[in-house]
Amino acid sequence: MSSHALSSAAPPGRRTARRKKLWRNIGVFALLAGPNLALLLIFTYRPMFLSFYYSMLNWNIGSDFAQFIGFGNYVEWFNDPESARIVATTLLYTVATVAGGMAIGLALALALNRKLFGRGIVRTVTFAPYVLSGIAVGFLWMYIFNPNIGLLRTVLGWLGLSSPPWFTQQPWPLIMIIIVTLWKHIGYVALIYLAGLQAVPQDLRDAAALDGAGTWRVFRAIVLPLLGPITFFLLITLTLSALQSFDLIRSMTNGGPLGSTKTLMYQVYVEGFQIGRGGYGSAVATILFVILLVVTAIQMKFVERRVHYQ
Amino acid sequence: MRSRSGLILPESLRQPSRRSLLQLGGLGLGAGFLAACSGPSVGSSDGGGNAETAAGTDWSTIEPAEQITFMSLQQGTELEQELVAEFTAETGIAINHVSGGGSYEELAQNFRASAGTSEQPDVAQASDVFWFQYLTSGNTIPVDGLLEHLEVEVDDFQEALYGDYEFDGQHWAVPYGRSTPMFYYNKTVWESAGLPDRGPDTWTEFQEWSPQIQSVLPADGAAMGWSAPGPSNTAWFGQSILWAHDAAFSHEWEWSLDTEEALWVGNFYRDAFNGPDAWSKVAVDQAAEFAAGLYGAIMGSTGGIVSYREMLPTLGVAFMPGGTIPADAPRVPTGGNGLTISGPTPEKQLAGGMLLRHLTTPENSARWAVSTGYMPTRKAAIETETMQAAIAEVPDRQIPIDQLEITKVQDYARALLPGGDLLISEHFERIILSGEDAEPVFADLTNELQRAFEQNVEPHL
């Protein structure tokens, strides 16, 4: 007998009670999830759809009037020779900061996981840059990198070296931004990895050691695979963060010189807010969104397969 | 069921039914509807916005609004709060005084973000390179008729400062926090180099002086330290050097970078930074490096006089150097910000006009100039006791005032064309940093200026 037939056969009183329960559950769901869903709808999905809608317009931000031009802004972006360079810069910055951040962060976490004197203070100090404002960090590092009177110039001078032209000659400006991004983010990466390292069961390590595995072998065969979920989480969050990075570029190089530090996110800002082309800026934002979506989907599809869950 | 990522997904999401697909479609349609209900009206051309409202207004029949919003960069300063409080006490009109941010770009962003909403300011500051964008967006009104009704003596504004806001025979703002570029030099360096205690008369003269200047500077110093490439300064200073040599970025909407004079200036820039006779260097922190004795001279805004002097007591202040045009011919641009009226109703516009009148009276203009380092925007302000006392205290304040005689209205390519300032700066970087010849760079720049004009200006004219 089908469940439908069973349901139809149930006494009317029980059916009413079940319906009441269903509505009560719906009510509880609406009460608990409703505010969050409303906020998501208003502050995430609405702007997202609006941005896509604006990308179809020739519209100056602030203007009451616009012209519908279909995919005209997208056609312009794909035909602009600058676009390929901006995408390349964005990808280079993303790969360098994500790969570099994870490698250094993991190394730092391994060091902090040992029983060292003052470990608590070192952990706090390492994490502190992550909570600082990007703009403030940018200005601070400008004083350090200043090749004319900066701190780094003095330090390099002690070693008999001259300061690279951090602000004026490619590829130094992008390298400078990557270094500062790494400095700002490795504390966060290290903290997350540290939590993962502390969750690795000691008995597994001990068993491996008894079987004659050395430190490197234990790390490669046991620790690293068990850190898989954390590595995967960091890979996605750091990639998304790098692709949307803005504050350091804004405060240190303004996307220059010669556009060498202009990323997609910075292009959205320049087109939308400096030049006022709301439609074109929205088109670039939509392209960035699609790239974010594709990169995340690829990571979910291919990288997650290699992740071992306990 | 648990997905590979560990998320527990309902059956409906793993194997979507026709109903859930319909729900998804409904959500998409709803979102599309939401989008279509918001934002600008889609049509073939711009309307006049607030400007149309203002053009047809008989101001004598209007009563000012009881409250208006004023968006300003100096909202946090004691003097501006004082000026606003005095206005309210005098007129009874309350001012909602809001901050526009920390820079002209932030101000423009905040203004644009608020445009068309209930948060839109009725009076707002606008920088020299952003006010025209407010105009093309239909957010500001021409002030001529309103100022005439309010009996504001517009002839008393410094011509170049007020003229910067003229377009299509009307003025769209009044000058408020205005500045000009100046030539600053280190008198100690000048003395050591055996140079007369004055700025160079021409750029060629400065170039001739540069070996002497560099001979008394540290090995990594330079005769001139230029602020790091970036928006504003490159194009602002470059405008003066072009004008001094009878060239310009543009004449209204006609680009003029293909002339012999313009190309000469472009290559003058190239040789200043590149080659064995280079005499310029890019400064990252211009003021600090100048004060540290790395440079013999810099170009900076009028507003820097007091702070530069605090950092470098041996500061010399001079006019921007000239070139091939007569010494008394206009060759210096002005910059800074003005006040626009963007209120949506005639009542708010009238109250906004009254605030403009109050903030720019000769006495208030003088108080503002003394406090901030900006230029006195009114001729009568120079004669006030406040201004004269300030000049007596720091005599160098008189020099930018005298330089006003040789200022003129900026080129459309830099000041009016949206993004023009940025385009010019980016292309000058090719000359300065890569040492490229001016001709192909200026040809590319001309194409870019034309493209920007066709995209961002022509549809709105």
* Main pleated sheet of chain B: 5 strands, mixed
Please tell me how large the radius of gyration of chain B is.
Answer: 26 Å
- Biggest interface and its residues per chain? A-B, 46 and 60 residues
Helical content band of chain B: 40-55%
**Assembly state here?**
heterodimer
CATH topology of the largest domain in chain B: D-Maltodextrin-Binding Protein, domain 2
Q: Report the strand count of chain B.
A: 15
CATH architecture verdict of the largest domain in chain B: 3-Layer(aba) Sandwich
Structure characterization notes:
The complex is a heterodimer of chains A (310) and B (461). Chain A has 310 residues and is mainly α. Chain A folds into two domains: 3-54, no CATH class; 72-306, MetI-like (MetI-like fold). Chain A contains 14 helices and two strands, in the order ααββαααααααααααα. In chain A, strands 1-2 form a two-stranded antiparallel sheet. In chain A, strand 1 (57-58) and strand 2 (65-68) form a beta hairpin. In chain A, helix 4 (81-112) packs parallel to helix 8 (172-198). The longest helix of chain A has 43 residues, at 12-54. The radius of gyration of chain A is 26 Å and the shape is flat. The relative contact order of chain A is 0.12. Chain B is α/β, with parallel strands linked by helices. Chain B has two domains: 50-179 and 335-406, Periplasmic binding protein-like II (D-Maltodextrin-Binding Protein, domain 2, 3-Layer(aba) Sandwich); 181-332 and 417-460, Periplasmic binding protein-like II (D-Maltodextrin-Binding Protein, domain 2). Chain B has 22 helices and 15 strands. Chain B has helices spanning 11-14, 18-37, 50-55, 78-91, 104-114, 131-136, 144-149, 159-163, 187-192, 203-215, 233-244, 260-273, 286-291, 305-311, 346-359, 362-372, 379-382, 385-393, 398-403, 412-415, 420-434, 438-456; strands at residues 41-42, 67-72, 94-99, 123-127, 166-167, 170-171, 174-179, 181-186, 222-227, 250-251, 254-255, 280-283, 295-301, 315-318, 335-341. In chain B, helix 12 packs across helix 21 (420-434). The radius of gyration of chain B is 26 Å and the shape is globular. The termini of chain B are far apart. The interface between A and B is large, with 46 and 60 residues.
